[in-house]
Amino acid sequence: MKKKLLAALLSVAMVATLLAGCGGGGSDTTDTTETTDTTEETTDAAETEETADAGTAAAGDLHLEIVSKGLQHAYWQAVLNGVNSKAEELGVSVNFVGPDSESNIQQQVQQLESALNADPSAIGLAALDTESVMDLLNRAVEAGIPIVGFDSGVPGAPEGAIVANCSTDNLAAGGLAAENVYAAIQATVQAATSPVRVGVVAQDATSESVVNRGVGFITKIAELAEADGKTVGMASVSNERYVTDSGVEVNDDADFIIEVRVPASVTSELSAADASAILEQDDTIAIYGSNEHSANAIITANENLNKCGTGEGQVIAAGFDSGAGIMDAVRSGLFLGAVTQAPVAMGEKLVETLVAAANGEEVSDIDTGCQWYTAENMDDPEIAQNLYE
To answer: CA distances (Å), 64 to each of 308, 346, 357, 386, in order?
Structure first.
């Protein structure tokens, strides 16, 4: 670039020397002016190219902070794989963290604060509890740091704090599970002369994704049972959040009873106890776990009770997410099937969206999708790419 500029300046000097030797004149003055304009254009072009080079270098300097709900489940490891793959491809640096437990809200708050203090180009956040991070979200807005939600996102965040979400439509995903479970129990429901029960094991009542998967399941299966002429009610022991959000009234005397159990804290032991409490009831005909943790709790509970399966008189079980335990349960027939998200693709889309937001581009929500898988279709390439151990 400097050589081109030097050559142009030498050309000007030579022309000037020749003009001086010829004595100069009107037309010669015009020629000199035109040459000077060319030199200015060359200089402008050089400055433009140098600016573009600087912009490209700045893009490679982008740093992203991503705060997930945890790292202990295979699901989050799959999201992390997608994040790392896309970050390497785009040449950006990423710090991916998550609390030790998905019930450790305070630890996530501290991690988000650390992410803000790192002054990143953008932040990805899957909030365990939106209310707990409100002040930090406002800080991000004031600092001009864009935040992209993923997984359950950050529902109820201040206006402008979340520029986009990369997530599954969890209400629809829960409904997909309900449709498949109901198809397997419909004949039993229609023939029943006494109440039947369907259980929902939920990890918590705070995470928007977990709640929506439960609510989506409840509202759809209630709709299907009502279409078959059954009265539907929630068991009185059900978690209040799920009763309120689903709009299904408490009625222990209904023909079709839906029971939702949520542990006092997120531990495998407490969730397995919840699953056992549902399976031990004689009128239970189906049970659903709304994430990997809850589905694994059903598997654990069944080890002692031996009630789940797809045979006559057995309890139809279904899960959400994959992971080795759930995949084995589906393949063996212990589970009817499960819903899987696309966690690797979610991680990739999250990084792409964060980079675009950091560069000031307009971004929008992305539905990363879900699929129902069974022993019959889980090896199909379209399904298998979304299953993770």
So the answer is: 44, 15, 11, 25
Order the strands of the 196-201 sheet from edge to edge.
232-234, 256-261, 196-201, 284-289, 316-320, 337-341, 370-373
Rounded to an integer, what distance in angstroms lies between the CA atom of residue 66 and that of residue 98?
8
Phi, psi angle pair for 123, to nearest 5°: -130, 135
3-state SS class at 386: coil
* Terminal C-alpha separation, the chain: 53
Q: In tens digits, what is the pLDDT along the chain, a chain of 389 residues?
A: 433 333 443 343 443 443 344 333 333 333 433 434 444 444 444 444 443 333 333 456 899 999 999 988 888 998 999 999 999 999 999 999 999 998 899 999 999 999 999 999 999 999 999 999 999 999 999 999 999 999 989 988 988 999 999 999 999 999 999 999 999 999 999 999 999 999 999 999 988 889 999 999 999 999 999 999 999 999 999 999 999 999 999 999 999 999 999 999 999 999 999 999 999 999 999 999 999 999 999 999 999 999 999 999 999 999 999 989 999 999 999 999 999 998 888 999 999 999 999 999 999 999 998 999 999 999 998 899 889 88
3-state SS, residue 94:
strand
Q: Domain 61-168+344-369 has what CATH class?
A: alpha beta
Give start and end residues of each alpha helix (H) in the chain.
2-22, 26-60, 74-90, 105-117, 134-143, 170-191, 208-227, 240-246, 268-279, 292-305, 324-332, 343-358, 381-384
Selection from 302, 352, 366, 351 nearest residue 328 by Cα: 302
Look at phi and psi of residue 265 and say left if phi exceeds 0, alpha if psi is from -120 to 50, else beta: beta
Amino acid at 287: I
Tell me the backbone φ, ψ of residue 231, rounded to 5 degrees: -85, 135
What is the distance between the alpha carbons of residues 145 and 167, in angstroms, rounded to a whole number? Answer: 20
Phi-psi region of 361 (alpha: psi -120 to 50; beta: other; left: phi over 0): beta
Question: Which architecture characterizes domain 170-341 according to CATH?
Answer: 3-Layer(aba) Sandwich (3.40)
